Amino acid sequence: MFHLWRSNSFRHTGAVILLGLASVTRAVAQKRIPCPDGEHIEIDVRQISIQYGASTFAGTLGSLSALGARLEITPKRLQEVAVATQQWDEFLKGLAAGYNTCAVTREQYADGLNRIYPRLQEDGSSLEQVRKAIANGQKIDAQHLQRLIDSFSADLRQFAQLSGKEIILERISALADQQKALSDQEKSNTERILAKLDELKQMNLQAPLATPPEIKQQISDIRRGLLTKADNAEVAYNKGYALLNQYHFAEAIPYLQQAVADVPLPDFYLALGRSYYELSNLGDAERVIREGLKATPTSDEEYVARLESHMGVILEAKGDLGGALQYTQRALKIGERLYGPDHPIVAVRANNIGQILQDKGDLGGALQYTQRALKIDEKVYGPDNPDLAVELNNIGQILKDKGNLDGALQYTRRALKIDEKVYGPDHPIVAVKANNIGAILQDKGELDGALQYSHRALKIDEKVYGPDHPIVARDDNNIGLILKAKGDLNSALQYVKRALKIDEKVYGPDHHSVAINANNIGLILTAKGDLDGALQYFQRALKIDEKVYGPDYPAVAIRANNISQILKAKGDLDGALQYAQRALRIDEKVYGPDHPSTKAVASNVAEIRKLRSK
Q1: How many independent structural domains does the chain possess?
Q2: Which of 60, 72, 291, 433 is the 20 to 30 A CA-CA neighbour of 390?
Q3: Nearest alpha carbon to residue 597 among 578, 580, 609
Q4: How far apart are CA 559 and CA 545, in angstroms?
Q5: Is 32 inside a domain boundary?
Q6: Is there a domain that residue 373 lies in?
Q7: d(Cα 557, Cα 550) in Å, to the nearest integer?
Q8: Is the backbone of residue 394 left (phi > 0), alpha (psi -120 to 50) or beta?
Q9: 3 in a domain, yes or no?
C-alpha cells in the first residue's frame, strides 16, 4: 500500500479594499449623523468589507513575502507589510466606524480614500511588476524593491492611524520578532504570524484580560490597608498590560511579576501566565497559574474557573490531555453554576473540552461537547454568526474522522454558507471551508465535486496570496491528488510539479513540504508505470525527511515503505525487504504493533518474504 499525503486545511484573516466616499455613501446612505465637522452619512461597515477585496495588494505582497528569505532586502519588513495587508479589512472597518461615531472627520475619511489609497495602489502595481520579474527569473534591483516596500509600509501605517487601528501594526511587528526564534518547518513566517494573530484575537475575545480601569476598581478596595504596594502594583500592571496588548510578551513579564509580588490579584496571575504561554514557556505558565489558584480563595468561583480554564489550555499545549480535561471540566461546572447552562462562557468551555477529547481520540465525546457549544451559540447569537461556522467546521471534521461523511458534509457546507454571508465569496476563510468540503467529497468518492471545491479554494488563494505562495502550493497538491484518483495522471503531475516548484522557490530544496510534493509525484509516476522516475522522487523525499526529522520519524517510514513497493515491482526483492523492514521498525517503535500503519507495513514485509521464498 502506497501512502498519500493530503495537505491540512488552515485559516487566515483576509483583506478588503474600499471605494471613494461618494460611491460608498450612495450605496448605503440611510442614517444622518450630526458631528462637530458637519453632518455624516452613516457608512455600512459590513457591506464595505464584503463587497471590496484587496487582491491587487494581498496577492502581490503574499508572494513576495513567501520569497523574502531569497531576496536581498529586509525580510522582516516585507513579512510585516504582507501580514498587515491581510488585516486591511480591520483598518477599513475602523475608519468607517470612526466616521460613523464622529471620531474620524470627513476630511480624514476622504484623505484615506482619495490620497493614501491611490498611493497604495500605485506602489502595489509597481510591486506586482517586480514579482513578475522575479517569477520569470530576472535579476531585480534590491534597493528599488526596498524603497517600494518602505513607501507602501508608510502609507499603510498612515491609513491604520486614521482608522484608530495602529495597534494591529504594533502587534504584527512584535509577533514578527518572536517568529525569528521559531523553526517550524511546516509554515512560512507570514503564515505563522497570521495564524497567531487569529489565535490571539480569539483568545482576547474568549478570555479577555482585566483592563487598567477594572484593575483600578479592584485596587481601590485594598488600597487603604496596602497603600504603597497597591499603588505600585497598579502602575506595574498598567505598564505590563500595555506591552501585552501590543504582543510584546517578554517585555511585559517583569512588570506583571512586580504586580503579582506586590498584590496577588487573580487577574495579575492570569496576565503573567498568558505572557509565558504566548512565548511557549509552558513550564512557567503552568507554575504561575498554579500559584494563582493557590492564592485565590475557593469561594471566589469566577476567578477559580478562569484560572482552571487557562490551566486546561496550557496542559493541552503540553500534551497532558488528561490534566487539561480535568481542569476544563471543573471550569465548565463552575460556569454552569454561576451563569446557567446556556451562557456563552459555558459554550467556550464545552468547545474546549470537545477539542481535548478529539485530541484524545474520543470522537463520540468530542462530538457531544462541540454540538452542545453549537446549540448554545445558536441560541445566543443566531444562526449566522461566524463563531458558529468555526464550531460547525469542527463538528464536520469530527464526523469525517468518525467516517460519517454525509454528516460531515452537511455541517461543513453550513459553515461555508455562513462564511460566504459574513465575509463574501472570495475570502481565505471561505477557501478553507471549500478545501475541507473537497476533502470530504474525495473521501466519499465524489471526485468531480471534490475537484470543483478544491479549484474554488485555489482560485481564492491565488487571488489573496498570489501565485507563488505555499498556500497555493498546498491547493495545487490537493488538486493533483484528486486528479490522480480520477485517473487523469498527466494533469495530476502538472499540478503537483507546480506545487513542488513553488515550495522549492520559497523554502529551498530540503524542506518537508518539498518532500511531500516529491512523494506525491512518485505516486503519480508509479501509477503511470514510470518506476524509475517514481523511485528517484521517493528517494529524494526520504533523504529530505531523514535530514529534517532524523532516521526514526513516521514520515521516514512512509517514504521507506513506498520505496519498498517500487523495488518489489522492479523485482529487487532484497532491496524491497530492507526498506520495508526499516519502515516496520519505525512504525512499531512509534505506534506499537496494533496500529493500522504498522499492520499495513507488516503485511508488505510478509508478502516480500513470500515472494523471495518462491
Answers
A1: 1
A2: 60
A3: 580
A4: 9
A5: yes
A6: no
A7: 11
A8: alpha
A9: no
3-state secondary structure of 41: strand
pLDDT at 446 over 90: yes
**Three-class SS state of 107:** helix
Does residue 540 lie in a domain region? no
pLDDT at 48 over 60: no
| Contact predicate 322/330, CB 8 Å | no
Confidence of residue 14 (pLDDT cuts 50, 70, 90): very low
Report d(CA 233, CA 217) in Å as an integer.
13
Which tens digit of pLDDT belongs to each residue from 89-126? 788 888 888 888 889 888 888 888 778 878 887 888 88
Beta strands in 376-425 (DSSP E): none
Q: What domain range is 159 assigned to?
A: 21-201
Q: What value does the mean pLDDT take over residues 523-551?
A: 95
Q: What is the C-alpha separation between 61 and 145, in angstroms, rounded?
A: 12
Of 472, 402, 413, residue with least CA distance to 441 = 413
Q: Which residue has the cell 522492479?
A: 570
Average pLDDT estimate for 391-410? 95
What is the per-residue pLDDT for 69? 56
Supply the DSSP string of 151-199, one letter for each residue.
HHHHHHHHHHHHHT-HHHHHHHHHHHHHHTT---TTS-HHHHHHHHHHH
